[in-house]
Specification:
mainly alpha, Arc Repressor Mutant, subunit A, four-stranded antiparallel sheet, 11 helices
Length: 290
């Protein structure tokens, strides 16, 4: 194998293992390897079509998400794209300028072309070891299927809620549940099947946060927004409106202080200040020992 190709594949494996590259990128590499088994290139639209078909058999894999495929193409300089319209070539840094609505002929860079069989073996081996969907995201897909599977998520003009940033938290108390009342079993008397998918956002966020260890990473928020067909800003708006949701990693234990009006009168602000001073952290942050 070409030494530079081996170096780039090693970087892909490192990024997969440390979580900085979505496993779906490895999926797209295996699809490319399969699609070029009998030729040295594949049309970009055929690559996508084969990937979407193959992804249907992999629970939790969101093949419609462009980001992992774009990362694979733009971050590792493995490919050469030739636009069908005018034969313009793209490789290296110019891959960042691809118009993904256009059609291209996709191949490995010329210096790597002879290594297609080895690339195919490498991709199959890594997919066998690392492939599939992260168990947490597979669990998230099960949650989405539970609440919105088979329902239309269409919405004409959703109004997103504003938010300041991923990690900010409001001081609005979380809605309470009476004893024995589960998520999705609250005040509404409508039959669940008659509710629009976006009505389940709170329940889905609650379950998703439990899946991801007490917080909501950006890819999870993006997936939830896509499944409900709502703007990501609206999902983030909800996570900020209710202080029970976190969009940054949290510690092993979470200490909350009620800050509604009655609690404020009873000294909640002083209690919070005392806790922060004792733990040497600011509100919403985590102690050094986790």
């Amino acid at each position: 194998m070409h030494t530079e190709l081996a170096t780039r594949l090693a970087q892909i494996e490192t990024d997969l293992r440390n979580g900085t590259l979505d496993r779906a990128a490895l999926f797209w590499l295996t699809v490319f390897a399969d699609a070029t088994a009998s030729a040295d290139s594949v049309r970009s639209d055929h690559w996508v079509e084969q990937g979407l078909a193959a992804a249907a058999d992999i629970p939790g894999l969101d093949a419609a998400n462009l980001a992992p495929r774009r990362d694979l193409v733009t971050r590792y300089n493995l490919f050469r794209f030739v636009r069908l319209k005018d034969n313009a070539e793209f490789s290296g840094a110019s891959l960042a300028d691809l118009d993904w609505q256009r059609k291209y002929r996709v191949s490995l860079r010329p210096e790597f072309a002879w290594d297609l069989p080895e690339l195919r073996s490498w991709a199959e081996a890594r997919w066998s070891e690392l492939g599939g969907v992260d168990p947490q995201f597979a669990a998230l897909e099960a949650v989405l299927e539970k609440y919105v599977g088979g329902k239309s998520a269409a919405h004409p003009h959703p109004q997103p809620l504003s938010h300041e940033g991923e990690g900010s938290q409001s001081q609005t108390p979380a809605p309470s549940l009476s004893e024995g009342e589960g998520w999705g079993e609250g005040e509404s008397s409508q039959a669940p099947d008659s509710l629009p998918p976006r009505s389940y956002l709170l329940e889905i966020l609650h379950d998703a946060q439990a899946i991801f260890g007490g917080w909501l990473p950006r890819p999870a928020v993006e997936r939830i927004a896509a499944a409900l067909a709502v703007p990501q800003a609206e999902v983030y708006g909800v996570t900020e409106f209710y202080e029970m949701f976190y969009t940054e990693p949290v510690g092993r234990k979470v200490v909350r202080v009620c800050q509604d009006a009655p609690c404020g009168v009873a000294g909640a602000d002083a209690l919070l200040a005392g806790l922060c001073q004792h733990l040497n952290i600011r509100p919403g942050k985590t102690t050094a020992d986790g």
